[in-house]
Design brief:
By secondary structure, the chain is α/β, with parallel strands linked by helices.
Length: 394
């Protein structure tokens, strides 16, 4: 719940404890009445949260990962005020918008447009405030004429489009998202992640639950790993995902390996994107520094060892490529001023003998926050200069 005393976007969870009963309700039958007392003796409650404590500062981006049943969704529901705690405290500052279940809070007999106004009212927005946003919400959802149709006719993907589009334009201090980005086509998922990146750039605190490591890497600077209702790791994203993969028995290096085959003489084993201060991140601004930190593993010598790097746009087109002679096992490629405009991009790297193509020893994704006044891929913004004033009149 939102409380006074906390900064807008700040989240506090102290010793949060919550259990759920799995005992079924006794049927209202004559037999049930006779056996009611005995039937009440069932399995003990299942603990979902066991003293979970978290402190999230305004503007932080936090990913929550863990096994099924680890307590991730319960944590978000507690933060959203959907379920109460049995002990402990949960609080947040400012306006919170949650996107936890498809179509939650929708009136199924209302049209998509009517549900936009309904959801806005539930979050404290006036009709005039929704009027200012509704065309952007409708355009983002890509529902077309279905926006005027009752939502009971919607597919799960259409629910996602409408639900996320509403949440994305309600100017929240805190945005809670639970797994639903896994629904829908890839293009819309990228669009959602790009919009989240823009909200992050604007200072929104984001808590994202997802099994998609790429989404966590792209959005979050911090990862909380839950297991059996307890926090077992809380720290930087790269280390958190590694801890999670170890927990799941699927440990691998940073980035995503897309090259098949066995061991080779030289290969990229890890890659991390950093800002100008050397901090790991996945969201950057146009004109800001970007560093690509690479770790190589050399098993045997090759005649002309080379590292190839390529940046691709969301549709897979090459934006930039370069290569360098390998003289060490740790390298950093520094871009002093990122000339890319808002969108999603991938960095792909490969190592080998001279002429190797960057078709993917490792691939990592990143986003560039959109800025007003420029569209496209490359930032070529300049200044207009008047050469000769226009002549007015005959």
């Amino acid at each position: 719940m939102s409380v006074q005393g906390l900064r807008p976007g700040e989240i506090v969870l102290r010793d949060a404890t919550r259990s759920f009963s799995i005992r079924a309700d006794q049927a209202r039958t004559f037999k049930g009445l006779l056996l009611g007392a005995r039937a009440a003796d069932g399995p003990p409650p299942v603990p979902a949260l066991r003293g979970v404590s978290l402190h999230i500062n305004p503007g932080e981006t936090v990913g929550m990962v863990g096994r099924n049943g680890a307590g991730k969704t319960s944590t978000l529901r507690v933060l959203a005020g959907i379920i109460p705690l049995q002990s402990g405290e949960a609080a947040s500052g400012g306006r919170m918008v949650s996107l936890l279940e498809l179509g939650s809070g929708f009136s199924r007999d209302f049209s998509g447009r009517e549900n936009i106004y309904l959801q806005g009212a539930l979050y404290g927005f006036t009709k005039a405030q929704i009027d200012e946003r509704i065309e952007r919400i409708v355009a983002f959802s890509e529902l077309g004429h279905f926006i005027e149709v009752p939502v009971k006719t919607y597919s799960s993907g259409m629910f996602l489009r409408l639900g996320f589009s509403i949440a994305a334009f309600l100017d929240a201090d805190v945005l809670l998202i639970d797994e639903i980005l896994a629904v829908g086509d890839e293009a819309f998922q990228r669009k959602c992640l790009r919009r989240i990146s823009e909200q992050i750039a604007g200072g929104t605190t984001v808590v994202l639950v997802s099994h998609d490591a790429r989404a966590i890497e792209r959005v979050c600077e911090r990862v909380v790993v839950l297991d059996a209702g307890r926090v077992v790791f809380d720290g930087p994203t790269a280390e958190g995902l590694l801890h999670y993969h170890r927990l799941m028995g699927t440990e691998h290096g940073g980035g995503e390996s897309v090259r098949a085959g066995g061991e080779r003489e030289i290969e990229v084993t890890d890659v991390e994107l950093r800002d100008g201060s050397g901090r790991a991140g996945t969201v950057f601004r146009t004109g800001s520094p970007l560093q690509v930190a690479v770790i190589l593993k050399v098993r045997s010598s090759v005649p002309h060892p080379e590292l190839a790097l390529e940046i691709r746009s969301a549709d897979g087109n090459r934006v930039f490529s370069t290569a360098t002679e390998i003289q060490a096992t740790r390298l950093v490629f520094e871009i002093p001023s990122l000339a890319l405009l808002g969108g999603d991009y991938d960095v792909s790297l490969a190592a080998g003998d001279r002429g190797v193509e960057a078709d993917g020893d490792r691939t990592v994704g990143f986003s560039v926050a959109a800025e007003p006044g420029a569209e496209g891929i490359v930032d070529l913004r300049g200044r207009w200069r008047i050469v000769e004033p226009a002549q007015v009149g005959p």
